[in-house]
Amino acid sequence: MSVTLDLSRVSTPVTPAPVTLSGMTRTALREALIAADICPPEKAKMRATQVWRWIHFYGVTDFAAMTDIGKNMRARLAAAFTVARPEIVERQVSKDGTRKWLIRTAPGIEVEAVYIPDVGRAGALCVSSQVGCTLNCTFCHTGTQKLVRNLTAAEIVAQVQVCRDDLEEWPKFGEDVTDQDERRLSNIVFMGMGEPLYNLDHVADAIEIISDGEGIALSRRRITVSTSGVVPQLEPLGTNTQAMLAISLHATNDALRDVLVPLNRKYNLEALMAGIRAYPGLSNARRVTFEYVMLKGINDSPDEARALIKLIEGIPAKINLIPFNPWPGTDYECSDWKTIERFAAIINKAGYASPIRTPRGRDILAACGQLKSESEKVRASALRKAAPTAVAAA
Ligand code: SAH
Ligand code: SF4
Protein backbone atom coordinates (compact mmCIF):
# COMPACT_ATOMS: atom_id res chain seq x y z
CA MET A 1 0.00 0.00 0.00
CA SER A 2 1.41 3.35 -0.89
CA VAL A 3 0.79 6.42 1.18
CA THR A 4 1.12 9.93 -0.14
CA LEU A 5 1.96 12.53 2.45
CA ASP A 6 0.52 15.98 1.96
CA LEU A 7 3.25 18.21 3.32
CA SER A 8 1.71 21.47 2.17
CA ARG A 9 -0.09 21.93 5.46
CA VAL A 10 2.97 21.39 7.56
CA SER A 11 4.64 24.41 6.06
CA THR A 12 1.73 26.78 6.76
CA PRO A 13 3.25 29.50 8.94
CA VAL A 14 1.56 29.69 12.33
CA THR A 15 2.25 32.66 14.55
CA PRO A 16 2.46 31.34 18.11
CA ALA A 17 0.12 33.22 20.41
CA PRO A 18 1.83 35.10 23.22
CA VAL A 19 1.23 33.52 26.60
CA THR A 20 -0.44 35.72 29.18
CA LEU A 21 1.38 35.92 32.49
CA SER A 22 -1.43 37.10 34.73
CA GLY A 23 -2.95 33.64 35.18
CA MET A 24 0.26 32.11 36.48
CA THR A 25 0.86 31.45 40.15
CA ARG A 26 4.21 32.68 41.45
CA THR A 27 5.75 29.23 41.00
CA ALA A 28 4.43 28.91 37.45
CA LEU A 29 5.66 32.42 36.64
CA ARG A 30 9.17 31.61 37.86
CA GLU A 31 9.24 28.42 35.80
CA ALA A 32 7.97 30.24 32.72
CA LEU A 33 10.76 32.83 32.95
CA ILE A 34 13.35 30.05 33.13
CA ALA A 35 11.78 28.04 30.30
CA ALA A 36 11.70 31.11 28.04
CA ASP A 37 15.34 31.80 28.85
CA ILE A 38 14.53 35.24 30.22
CA CYS A 39 16.92 34.74 33.13
CA PRO A 40 19.05 32.00 34.70
CA PRO A 41 17.35 29.81 37.34
CA GLU A 42 19.22 31.45 40.23
CA LYS A 43 17.80 34.87 39.30
CA ALA A 44 14.29 33.63 38.51
CA LYS A 45 12.80 34.15 41.94
CA MET A 46 13.86 37.79 42.07
CA ARG A 47 12.74 38.47 38.49
CA ALA A 48 9.43 36.73 39.03
CA THR A 49 8.79 38.88 42.11
CA GLN A 50 9.52 42.05 40.12
CA VAL A 51 7.23 41.06 37.26
CA TRP A 52 4.58 39.83 39.71
CA ARG A 53 4.40 43.20 41.47
CA TRP A 54 4.01 45.07 38.21
CA ILE A 55 1.21 42.81 37.07
CA HIS A 56 -0.69 42.20 40.29
CA PHE A 57 0.13 45.17 42.50
CA TYR A 58 0.27 48.00 39.98
CA GLY A 59 -1.92 46.39 37.31
CA VAL A 60 0.28 47.39 34.38
CA THR A 61 -0.66 46.10 30.93
CA ASP A 62 2.59 46.73 29.13
CA PHE A 63 6.11 45.48 29.80
CA ALA A 64 7.39 48.95 28.89
CA ALA A 65 6.00 50.22 32.21
CA MET A 66 8.19 47.83 34.23
CA THR A 67 10.87 50.43 34.77
CA ASP A 68 13.08 48.53 37.19
CA ILE A 69 13.68 45.84 34.58
CA GLY A 70 16.32 46.51 31.90
CA LYS A 71 15.13 47.51 28.42
CA ASN A 72 16.66 44.48 26.86
CA MET A 73 14.95 42.07 29.18
CA ARG A 74 11.63 43.90 28.79
CA ALA A 75 11.87 43.42 25.04
CA ARG A 76 12.52 39.70 25.49
CA LEU A 77 9.59 39.44 27.89
CA ALA A 78 7.32 41.19 25.40
CA ALA A 79 8.42 38.83 22.64
CA ALA A 80 7.48 35.74 24.64
CA PHE A 81 4.59 36.87 26.79
CA THR A 82 1.75 39.33 27.16
CA VAL A 83 0.27 41.25 30.09
CA ALA A 84 -2.41 42.94 27.98
CA ARG A 85 -6.07 42.93 29.02
CA PRO A 86 -8.65 41.10 26.99
CA GLU A 87 -11.11 43.13 24.93
CA ILE A 88 -14.16 44.60 26.64
CA VAL A 89 -17.03 44.05 24.24
CA GLU A 90 -19.67 45.82 26.29
CA ARG A 91 -19.85 47.83 29.50
CA GLN A 92 -23.18 48.61 31.13
CA VAL A 93 -24.00 50.62 34.22
CA SER A 94 -27.29 50.09 36.01
CA LYS A 95 -29.24 52.94 37.55
CA ASP A 96 -28.39 51.41 40.94
CA GLY A 97 -24.64 51.62 40.25
CA THR A 98 -24.13 47.96 39.33
CA ARG A 99 -21.63 47.57 36.50
CA LYS A 100 -21.48 44.70 34.07
CA TRP A 101 -18.74 43.88 31.59
CA LEU A 102 -18.82 41.48 28.72
CA ILE A 103 -15.21 40.48 28.16
CA ARG A 104 -13.93 38.62 25.11
CA THR A 105 -10.97 36.59 26.27
CA ALA A 106 -10.52 34.58 23.08
CA PRO A 107 -12.39 34.22 19.80
CA GLY A 108 -15.91 33.06 20.64
CA ILE A 109 -15.30 33.18 24.39
CA GLU A 110 -17.31 35.90 26.08
CA VAL A 111 -17.42 36.18 29.84
CA GLU A 112 -19.62 38.30 32.07
CA ALA A 113 -18.55 39.88 35.35
CA VAL A 114 -20.68 42.12 37.55
CA TYR A 115 -19.61 44.67 40.19
CA ILE A 116 -22.18 45.43 42.86
CA PRO A 117 -21.50 48.43 45.11
CA ASP A 118 -22.37 48.35 48.83
CA VAL A 119 -22.20 44.59 49.10
CA GLY A 120 -19.76 42.90 51.47
CA ARG A 121 -17.34 45.35 53.05
CA ALA A 122 -17.51 47.88 50.22
CA GLY A 123 -18.44 46.24 46.96
CA ALA A 124 -18.45 42.74 45.49
CA LEU A 125 -17.40 41.46 42.12
CA CYS A 126 -19.33 38.50 40.85
CA VAL A 127 -17.03 36.45 38.62
CA SER A 128 -17.70 33.66 36.14
CA SER A 129 -15.81 30.37 36.21
CA GLN A 130 -17.14 28.85 33.00
CA VAL A 131 -18.79 30.01 29.80
CA GLY A 132 -22.23 28.42 30.04
CA CYS A 133 -22.84 25.56 32.46
CA THR A 134 -23.28 21.80 32.18
CA LEU A 135 -25.89 21.82 34.92
CA ASN A 136 -29.44 22.76 34.11
CA CYS A 137 -30.97 24.29 37.18
CA THR A 138 -34.43 25.05 35.90
CA PHE A 139 -34.67 28.60 37.28
CA CYS A 140 -31.25 29.76 36.00
CA HIS A 141 -30.64 31.55 32.73
CA THR A 142 -27.02 30.40 32.51
CA GLY A 143 -28.30 26.84 32.69
CA THR A 144 -29.97 27.32 29.31
CA GLN A 145 -26.60 27.99 27.71
CA LYS A 146 -24.58 24.88 26.92
CA LEU A 147 -21.12 24.71 28.41
CA VAL A 148 -18.68 26.27 26.00
CA ARG A 149 -15.63 25.67 28.16
CA ASN A 150 -13.95 26.16 31.51
CA LEU A 151 -12.24 29.49 31.98
CA THR A 152 -8.51 29.55 32.55
CA ALA A 153 -7.04 31.13 35.67
CA ALA A 154 -5.96 34.08 33.50
CA GLU A 155 -9.53 34.58 32.32
CA ILE A 156 -10.80 34.57 35.90
CA VAL A 157 -8.09 36.97 37.10
CA ALA A 158 -8.81 39.20 34.07
CA GLN A 159 -12.33 39.82 35.37
CA VAL A 160 -10.88 41.20 38.60
CA GLN A 161 -8.33 43.28 36.70
CA VAL A 162 -10.97 44.77 34.40
CA CYS A 163 -13.04 45.74 37.41
CA ARG A 164 -10.07 47.38 39.14
CA ASP A 165 -9.24 49.25 35.91
CA ASP A 166 -12.79 50.56 35.74
CA LEU A 167 -12.81 51.56 39.42
CA GLU A 168 -9.34 53.11 39.01
CA GLU A 169 -8.18 51.12 41.95
CA TRP A 170 -4.57 50.27 41.11
CA PRO A 171 -2.01 52.10 43.26
CA LYS A 172 0.14 54.65 41.49
CA PHE A 173 3.81 53.75 41.16
CA GLY A 174 5.57 54.61 44.39
CA GLU A 175 2.44 54.28 46.53
CA ASP A 176 3.48 51.09 48.21
CA VAL A 177 0.64 50.84 50.65
CA THR A 178 -2.92 50.46 49.47
CA ASP A 179 -5.40 51.67 51.98
CA GLN A 180 -7.68 48.69 52.43
CA ASP A 181 -10.39 50.96 53.84
CA GLU A 182 -10.54 52.93 50.61
CA ARG A 183 -11.20 49.96 48.42
CA ARG A 184 -14.39 49.80 46.46
CA LEU A 185 -13.76 46.23 45.37
CA SER A 186 -13.55 44.38 48.68
CA ASN A 187 -15.16 41.01 48.02
CA ILE A 188 -15.21 38.40 45.29
CA VAL A 189 -18.04 35.95 44.80
CA PHE A 190 -17.92 33.07 42.34
CA MET A 191 -21.59 33.47 41.50
CA GLY A 192 -21.41 34.40 37.84
CA MET A 193 -21.68 31.97 34.99
CA GLY A 194 -20.79 28.35 35.57
CA GLU A 195 -20.14 25.82 38.28
CA PRO A 196 -16.80 26.67 39.93
CA LEU A 197 -16.30 23.21 41.39
CA TYR A 198 -16.22 21.73 37.91
CA ASN A 199 -13.23 23.97 37.26
CA LEU A 200 -11.57 23.81 40.63
CA ASP A 201 -7.91 23.78 39.53
CA HIS A 202 -8.24 27.07 37.67
CA VAL A 203 -10.47 28.59 40.34
CA ALA A 204 -7.91 27.64 43.01
CA ASP A 205 -5.03 29.18 41.00
CA ALA A 206 -7.06 32.36 40.48
CA ILE A 207 -7.79 32.59 44.21
CA GLU A 208 -4.09 32.07 45.02
CA ILE A 209 -3.23 34.92 42.65
CA ILE A 210 -5.83 37.47 43.75
CA SER A 211 -5.27 36.82 47.46
CA ASP A 212 -1.47 37.14 47.30
CA GLY A 213 -0.26 39.81 49.73
CA GLU A 214 2.12 41.32 47.15
CA GLY A 215 -0.65 41.65 44.59
CA ILE A 216 -4.34 42.43 44.69
CA ALA A 217 -4.31 41.07 48.25
CA LEU A 218 -7.96 40.28 48.71
CA SER A 219 -8.34 38.21 51.84
CA ARG A 220 -9.45 34.61 51.26
CA ARG A 221 -12.13 35.26 53.84
CA ARG A 222 -13.63 37.80 51.45
CA ILE A 223 -13.70 35.33 48.60
CA THR A 224 -16.79 33.14 48.40
CA VAL A 225 -17.26 30.18 46.12
CA SER A 226 -20.84 29.20 45.38
CA THR A 227 -21.69 25.67 44.31
CA SER A 228 -24.82 23.82 43.37
CA GLY A 229 -23.42 20.92 45.40
CA VAL A 230 -20.53 19.04 43.79
CA VAL A 231 -19.95 17.07 46.98
CA PRO A 232 -16.61 15.34 46.22
CA GLN A 233 -15.00 18.72 45.47
CA LEU A 234 -15.98 20.40 48.74
CA GLU A 235 -13.05 19.08 50.74
CA PRO A 236 -10.45 19.99 48.05
CA LEU A 237 -12.03 23.45 47.76
CA GLY A 238 -11.63 24.10 51.47
CA THR A 239 -8.15 22.60 51.73
CA ASN A 240 -6.72 24.22 48.60
CA THR A 241 -8.30 27.65 48.74
CA GLN A 242 -9.56 28.40 52.28
CA ALA A 243 -12.35 30.26 50.53
CA MET A 244 -15.74 30.85 52.09
CA LEU A 245 -18.39 28.38 51.00
CA ALA A 246 -21.86 29.13 49.66
CA ILE A 247 -24.32 26.37 48.79
CA SER A 248 -27.20 26.81 46.37
CA LEU A 249 -29.77 24.89 48.36
CA HIS A 250 -33.17 26.13 47.12
CA ALA A 251 -35.14 23.12 48.39
CA THR A 252 -35.40 21.13 51.59
CA ASN A 253 -36.47 17.77 50.17
CA ASP A 254 -34.98 15.61 47.44
CA ALA A 255 -38.12 15.44 45.30
CA LEU A 256 -38.15 19.22 44.77
CA ARG A 257 -34.39 19.68 44.67
CA ASP A 258 -34.15 16.98 41.98
CA VAL A 259 -36.24 19.29 39.81
CA LEU A 260 -34.74 22.66 40.69
CA VAL A 261 -31.08 21.57 40.90
CA PRO A 262 -30.84 18.35 38.86
CA LEU A 263 -27.35 17.66 40.25
CA ASN A 264 -29.24 16.58 43.37
CA ARG A 265 -30.02 13.28 41.64
CA LYS A 266 -26.29 12.56 41.81
CA TYR A 267 -25.52 14.06 45.22
CA ASN A 268 -28.69 14.11 47.29
CA LEU A 269 -29.40 16.25 50.33
CA GLU A 270 -28.05 13.70 52.78
CA ALA A 271 -24.72 13.49 50.94
CA LEU A 272 -24.63 17.27 50.50
CA MET A 273 -25.24 18.04 54.17
CA ALA A 274 -22.57 15.52 55.21
CA GLY A 275 -20.09 17.16 52.82
CA ILE A 276 -20.89 20.62 54.21
CA ARG A 277 -20.50 19.51 57.82
CA ALA A 278 -17.01 18.24 56.91
CA TYR A 279 -15.97 21.46 55.10
CA PRO A 280 -12.46 22.37 56.29
CA GLY A 281 -12.33 25.40 58.53
CA LEU A 282 -16.05 25.69 59.16
CA SER A 283 -16.67 27.60 62.40
CA ASN A 284 -18.81 30.37 63.81
CA ALA A 285 -16.34 32.85 62.38
CA ARG A 286 -16.39 31.11 59.00
CA ARG A 287 -19.97 30.19 58.32
CA VAL A 288 -21.36 28.56 55.26
CA THR A 289 -23.94 30.60 53.35
CA PHE A 290 -27.04 28.80 52.16
CA GLU A 291 -28.58 30.43 49.13
CA TYR A 292 -32.29 29.97 48.71
CA VAL A 293 -34.04 31.40 45.68
CA MET A 294 -37.63 32.40 46.43
CA LEU A 295 -39.94 30.86 43.84
CA LYS A 296 -43.63 31.66 44.08
CA GLY A 297 -45.70 28.66 45.12
CA ILE A 298 -42.74 26.30 44.69
CA ASN A 299 -40.48 26.49 47.76
CA ASP A 300 -41.71 29.49 49.76
CA SER A 301 -44.16 28.15 52.38
CA PRO A 302 -43.71 28.52 56.17
CA ASP A 303 -43.40 24.72 56.40
CA GLU A 304 -40.43 24.87 54.09
CA ALA A 305 -38.83 27.59 56.20
CA ARG A 306 -39.13 25.27 59.21
CA ALA A 307 -37.80 22.32 57.21
CA LEU A 308 -34.82 24.45 56.23
CA ILE A 309 -33.96 25.16 59.85
CA LYS A 310 -34.18 21.48 60.68
CA LEU A 311 -32.01 20.50 57.73
CA ILE A 312 -29.12 22.76 58.65
CA GLU A 313 -29.30 22.23 62.41
CA GLY A 314 -25.90 22.49 64.06
CA ILE A 315 -24.11 23.96 61.02
CA PRO A 316 -22.57 27.41 61.50
CA ALA A 317 -24.59 29.11 58.78
CA LYS A 318 -26.10 32.21 57.24
CA ILE A 319 -29.09 32.02 54.97
CA ASN A 320 -29.34 34.24 51.96
CA LEU A 321 -32.83 34.55 50.53
CA ILE A 322 -32.66 35.51 46.87
CA PRO A 323 -35.76 36.93 45.24
CA PHE A 324 -36.04 35.08 41.93
CA ASN A 325 -34.76 37.19 39.04
CA PRO A 326 -36.87 36.58 35.97
CA TRP A 327 -35.36 36.20 32.53
CA PRO A 328 -36.90 35.97 29.05
CA GLY A 329 -38.64 32.64 28.62
CA THR A 330 -38.86 31.44 32.24
CA ASP A 331 -42.09 30.10 33.75
CA TYR A 332 -41.06 30.76 37.34
CA GLU A 333 -42.18 33.80 39.26
CA CYS A 334 -40.68 35.55 42.24
CA SER A 335 -42.46 35.04 45.58
CA ASP A 336 -44.49 38.00 46.86
CA TRP A 337 -42.62 40.33 49.16
CA LYS A 338 -44.88 39.43 52.08
CA THR A 339 -44.20 35.73 51.59
CA ILE A 340 -40.46 36.35 51.53
CA GLU A 341 -40.68 38.40 54.73
CA ARG A 342 -42.72 35.72 56.45
CA PHE A 343 -40.15 33.10 55.42
CA ALA A 344 -37.30 35.31 56.67
CA ALA A 345 -39.06 35.93 60.00
CA ILE A 346 -39.27 32.20 60.74
CA ILE A 347 -35.58 31.79 60.03
CA ASN A 348 -34.61 34.84 62.09
CA LYS A 349 -36.61 33.52 65.01
CA ALA A 350 -34.54 30.34 64.91
CA GLY A 351 -31.42 32.49 65.37
CA TYR A 352 -30.07 32.65 61.83
CA ALA A 353 -29.18 35.81 60.00
CA SER A 354 -31.27 35.71 56.84
CA PRO A 355 -30.77 38.82 54.77
CA ILE A 356 -33.01 39.12 51.75
CA ARG A 357 -30.72 39.85 48.85
CA THR A 358 -31.83 43.06 47.21
CA PRO A 359 -31.97 42.45 43.48
CA ARG A 360 -29.30 44.59 41.85
CA GLY A 361 -28.72 45.49 38.26
CA ARG A 362 -31.94 43.87 37.05
CA ASP A 363 -32.33 46.55 34.37
CA ILE A 364 -29.10 45.41 32.70
CA LEU A 365 -29.77 41.69 33.26
CA ALA A 366 -26.89 41.60 35.71
CA ALA A 367 -28.67 40.02 38.66
CA CYS A 368 -28.00 36.50 39.95
CA GLY A 369 -28.88 33.85 37.45
CA GLN A 370 -29.48 36.28 34.60
CA LEU A 371 -26.07 36.03 33.02
CA LYS A 372 -25.89 34.40 29.67
CA SER A 373 -23.47 35.31 26.94
CA GLU A 374 -23.97 34.68 23.25
CA SER A 375 -20.89 32.44 23.14
CA GLU A 376 -21.59 29.10 21.59
CA LYS A 377 -19.53 26.03 21.12
CA VAL A 378 -17.64 26.49 17.87
CA ARG A 379 -15.32 23.95 16.34
CA ALA A 380 -11.69 24.59 17.17
CA SER A 381 -10.78 24.64 13.48
CA ALA A 382 -13.23 27.50 12.85
CA LEU A 383 -11.72 29.43 15.73
CA ARG A 384 -8.18 29.02 14.39
CA LYS A 385 -9.31 30.26 11.02
CA ALA A 386 -11.03 33.26 12.59
CA ALA A 387 -8.04 34.48 14.56
CA PRO A 388 -4.76 32.66 14.06
CA THR A 389 -2.82 35.03 16.31
CA ALA A 390 -5.23 35.08 19.20
CA VAL A 391 -3.82 35.74 22.62
CA ALA A 392 -3.59 32.41 24.39
CA ALA A 393 -4.78 32.50 27.94
CA ALA A 394 -2.43 30.57 30.15
N1 SAH B 1 -23.11 27.52 39.71
C1 SAH B 1 -22.96 28.06 41.00
C2 SAH B 1 -22.62 29.54 41.02
C3 SAH B 1 -23.34 30.42 40.04
S1 SAH B 1 -25.05 30.73 40.31
C4 SAH B 1 -24.18 27.78 41.83
O1 SAH B 1 -25.18 27.33 41.28
O2 SAH B 1 -24.12 28.00 43.03
C5 SAH B 1 -25.08 31.88 41.67
C6 SAH B 1 -26.39 31.87 42.46
O3 SAH B 1 -27.48 32.43 41.71
C7 SAH B 1 -26.83 30.47 42.83
O4 SAH B 1 -27.28 30.42 44.15
C8 SAH B 1 -27.97 30.25 41.87
O5 SAH B 1 -28.80 29.23 42.31
C9 SAH B 1 -28.61 31.61 41.85
N2 SAH B 1 -29.53 31.82 40.74
C10 SAH B 1 -29.53 31.23 39.53
N3 SAH B 1 -30.54 31.69 38.78
C11 SAH B 1 -31.21 32.60 39.51
C12 SAH B 1 -32.33 33.47 39.27
N4 SAH B 1 -32.92 33.47 38.09
N5 SAH B 1 -32.74 34.27 40.26
C13 SAH B 1 -32.08 34.31 41.43
N6 SAH B 1 -31.01 33.54 41.72
C14 SAH B 1 -30.58 32.69 40.77
FE1 SF4 C 1 -25.14 26.26 36.59
FE2 SF4 C 1 -25.30 27.49 38.99
FE3 SF4 C 1 -27.00 28.13 36.99
FE4 SF4 C 1 -27.21 25.77 38.21
S1 SF4 C 1 -27.52 27.80 39.15
S2 SF4 C 1 -27.29 26.13 35.97
S3 SF4 C 1 -25.06 25.27 38.60
S4 SF4 C 1 -24.77 28.45 36.99
Write structural notes for this entry.
Helices cover 30% and strands 16% of the residues. With 394 residues, the chain is α/β, with parallel strands linked by helices. The chain folds into 2 domains: 19-82, Orthogonal Bundle (DNA polymerase, domain 1); 87-378, Alpha-Beta Barrel (TIM Barrel), CATH 3.20.20.70. Strands 3-4-5-6-9-10-11-12-13 form a 9-stranded mixed β-sheet, with helices on one face. It is elongated, with a radius of gyration of 23 Å. The structure holds S-adenosyl-L-homocysteine and iron/sulfur cluster. Iron/sulfur cluster binds at residues 133, 135-137, 140, 142-143, 194-195, 228, 248.
Q: In the CATH hierarchy, what is the superfamily of the largest domain?
A: Aldolase class I
Q: Low-confidence segments, ≥5 residues, pLDDT <50?
A: 1-13, 378-394
Strand tally, please? 13
* Spatial shape: elongated
Helical residue percent? Answer: 25-40%
Largest sheet: 9 strands, mixed
What ligands are attached or bound here? Answer: S-adenosyl-L-homocysteine, iron/sulfur cluster
Element order, helices and strands?
EHHHEEEEEEEHEHEHEHHEHEHH
Q: State the end-to-end distance.
A: 43 Å
- Output the CATH class name of the largest domain: Alpha Beta
- Overall pLDDT metric: 88
Q: Structural class per helix/strand content?
A: alpha/beta
CATH architecture of the largest domain: Alpha-Beta Barrel
CATH topology of the largest domain: TIM Barrel
Q: What strand order characterises the main sheet?
A: 3-4-5-6-9-10-11-12-13
How many domain units?
2
> How much of the residues is beta strand, in percent?
15-25%
What is the C-alpha radius of gyration, as a whole number of Å? 23 Å
Number of helices: 11
